[in-house]
Amino acid sequence: MKANANSEAKTQRPELPVSPECPEPRVLPQSPACPESLEFPVSPVCVAQANTRNKDDALKELGARNACTTKNSERSKLWQLARDLSRIERGAGRELTIAEITPAFQRWHELSEPHLDPARKREDLFAELVAGLRKVRVPTGQGDTFNKALKAVLKLPPSQLPSIPGMPDASECWRRLVALHWEISRRCGDNTYFLSCRDAAKVFPGLSHRAASDMNAVLERLSVIRIVRVGDQRPNGKASEFRCLAAR
């Protein structure tokens, strides 16, 4: 029993200290859990934990759902399949292997073949899907999660915003950014999540995406968040991937 207690204590994340101006801990208001997208057949976590046969079946279903039904639609359908697979990667906390991507593509190609451009080779289409996974900026369902999280955080009065360790006099702008990270993390089941600097900048009037990027770097040093993967700097590039470290 003692060993288990010690183990549980080690896995708990540190509580954020309360600033002098806010004697009571700030707790983000509860909101409804993020519903599963109707376009996605199973929970990403379930896919990651399922046995090989069940995982292949789920991936094949994704391929079937995104199969082409009209001519000249392979590019858009492959992109949506990449977004669906990217959501699985986010839930699993790792990239899918080629062996895991293949069942989804095979099913997609099988059903899409009557509508595909005969000049496009099968291996080229597969390469487009695999390459597209790293270009996905917003996985399936993620955009709606961000919009709901942003809406919830913008409604918070200053007195309900969290304090920041090491920054007892942090401005409202900084504290709203932390609240945004917390809310997105909560809605994603405390898994990793994607957030672009341009989207982060929407949390406070006049905040630039460059300033939001610098603020995230500081928050990482304060162990409030961890930058899992830095995104692309171009306007339509892939968003950075984060994990929230501090307890709410």
Describe the protein.
- There is one protein chain.
- By secondary structure, the protein is mostly helical.
- The protein folds into two domains: 44-133, no CATH class; 140-244.
- The protein contains ten helices and three strands.
- The radius of gyration is 21 Å and the shape is elongated.
Short summary of the structure?
This protein has two domains: 44-133, no CATH class; 140-244. Helix content is 49%, strand content 5%. The protein has ten helices and three strands, in the order H-H-H-H-H-H-H-H-E-H-H-E-E.
Name the poorly predicted regions: 7-11, 16-50
**Strand residue content:** 5-15%
Distance between the termini: 27 Å
Q: Count the helices. How many? A: 10
What's the total number of strands? 3
- The sequence of SSEs as H and E is HHHHHHHHEHHEE
Distinctive features:
248 residues, mainly alpha, three-stranded antiparallel beta sheet, 3 strands
Layout of helices and strands:
Elements: H1 2-11, H2 44-49, H3 52-65, H4 74-92, H5 98-112, H6 122-133, H7 142-154, H8 172-187, E1 193-195, H9 197-200, H10 209-221, E2 225-229, E3 240-244
Antiparallel strand pairs: 1-3, 2-3
Helix pairs in contact: 3-5, 4-6, 5-6, 7-8
